[in-house]
C-alpha cells in the first residue's frame, strides 16, 4: 500500500541540522503515526512521503518554508512565568512549552524577570534547512473515526 491522502502513516525519523548533527530521533522507539493529507505533518515531509510504501527508507533535506517556517522578526512576547512548562528555573536560551489557542507550542526564553518572561515565539528550529532520515514503518487505510476526528489513533497517534 502506498502513501496517499486518508492513509495512516507510521514512521521513524532522525532529524539533522545543517552540519549533520542529530537533533532528534525516534529510531528504535514506537513510530509516530499521522493521517496523511490532513495538515498533521510538515508540508515538506508529506510531499516527500507521497507515493512511498512500508519499508521505504530515504533522506530528504528541506528548506525552512517546508518545515518549521522562516524566522519572523518582532516575534517576542511577554508572558507570565507560570505559563511556561518544562523547568522550575528559567534562563535565557532555554526552550519552554506554552499552551496557546492552537495547542502546545515551543518557545525560547529571551529574558527572565521575577514574574514575567520574554519569549521568542518562533519555533527553535525555524529558519533552518533540515535533513530528515525517514523510514516508513507502516501504511494503512484510516478508519471512519480517524477521518472524522482528523488524526491517527492508536500506537504513535492520538489517544482519547
Structure, briefly:
This protein has 160 residues and is mainly beta. Helix content is 8%, strand content 39%.
Helices and strands in order, then pairings?
Blueprint: E1 7-16, E2 22-25, E3 32-35, H1 43-49, E4 57-62, E5 76-80, E6 95-100, E7 103-112, E8 116-120, E9 130-141, H2 144-149
Antiparallel strand pairs: 1-2, 1-3, 1-9, 4-9, 5-8, 6-7, 7-8
Q: Any overview of this molecule?
A:
The chain is mainly beta and about 160 residues long. The chain folds into two domains: about 5-70 and about 125-150, Roll (Chitinase A, domain 3), CATH 3.10.50.40; about 75-120, Beta Barrel (Thrombin, subunit H), CATH 2.40.10.330. Helices cover about 10% and strands about 40% of the residues. It has helices at about 45-50, 145-150; strands at about 5-15, 20-25, 30-35, 55-60, 75-80, 95-100, 105-110, 115-120, 130-140. Strands 1, 2, 3, 4 and 9 form a five-stranded antiparallel sheet that branches. The protein has a four-stranded antiparallel sheet with strand order 5-8-7-6, with no helix packed on it. About 20% of the residues are buried. The model has no long low-confidence stretch (mean pLDDT about 95). Belongs to the FKBP-type PPIase family. Also involved in hydrogenase metallocenter assembly, probably by participating in the nickel insertion step. This function in hydrogenase biosynthesis requires chaperone activity and the presence of the metal-binding domain, but not PPIase activity. It is found in: Cytoplasm. Its EC number is 5.2.1.8.
